[in-house]
Amino acid sequence: MSEVTIERRGIMFVLSSPSGAGKTTITRRLLEAVSGLEMSVSITTRPKRSDEIDGRDYNFIDKDKFLRLSEAESFLEFATVFGHSYGTPREPVESALLSGVDIVFDIDWQGRDQLASTMPNDIVSIFILPPSLQELEQRLRRRAQDSTSVVSARMEKASEEMSHYVDYDYVVINSSLDEAVIQVASIISAERNRRSRQLNLENFVGNLQTT
Question: What is the pLDDT of residues 118-165, one digit of tens each?
Fold first, then answer.
């Protein structure tokens, strides 16, 4: 028997967390484990880290170009974090959603708020929490990507960032990476099957009732 698929619009799955809580690692694992899921590649003025690839992790540009894109309203959302600007390009996301493709976003609470304001029916938001502040600091230090002063600044900001969990649809505590990935993948599966997202479900059920 052939598989039946119900047409639907794509979903924007937004993952946010304080720095070091694991949203980027979880996002990468999801892209490997969940079919039909693509990454929204943000544009940033932040310098590229040694383990990052331009075009995969971010599109890295200078501040002048970022400003021109912002003035041209080319971003669905944008924000400045720790002195660097980040933005989500509008056109590729809107095209993907129209094609029924799901997009995962690795952005902060400011970006989530903007997306929720402009595209409220398309967004599902998930906040990733660390199991403790001590573990969060250890993770930041273990990844050895930032100076001691930057780590301290991220820890100082973590409490304020975590206060925004109340605005999210789901909260996942990342005590175990494998378990956190499973939980987020389950959320994606459930949201894909939400009745309100099935565009031609009424006709499909009507045909079942008359055959």
Answer: 999 999 999 999 989 888 888 888 776 667 777 788 888 888 999 999
Mean per-residue pLDDT of the chain? 91
Tokens found for residue 121: 């029916």
Nearest in space to 102 (alpha carbons), one of 29, 8, 37: 37
For 29, half-sphere exposure in the C-beta direction (CA atoms, 13 angstrom radius) is 16
Beta-sheet pairing, 170-173 with 123-129: parallel
3: in domain: no
Q: Kindly write down the DSSP assignment for every residue of 97-139, as one continuous string.
A: HHTT-EEEEE--HHHHHHHHHH-TTTEEEEEEE-S-HHHHHHH
CATH number of the domain enclosing 33: 3.40.50.300
Domains in the chain, number: 1
Q: pTM, whole model, 2 decimals? A: 0.84
Residue 59's SS3 state is strand
- What was the pLDDT predicted at 154? 82
Are the C-beta atoms of 46 and 39 separated by less than 8 Å?
no
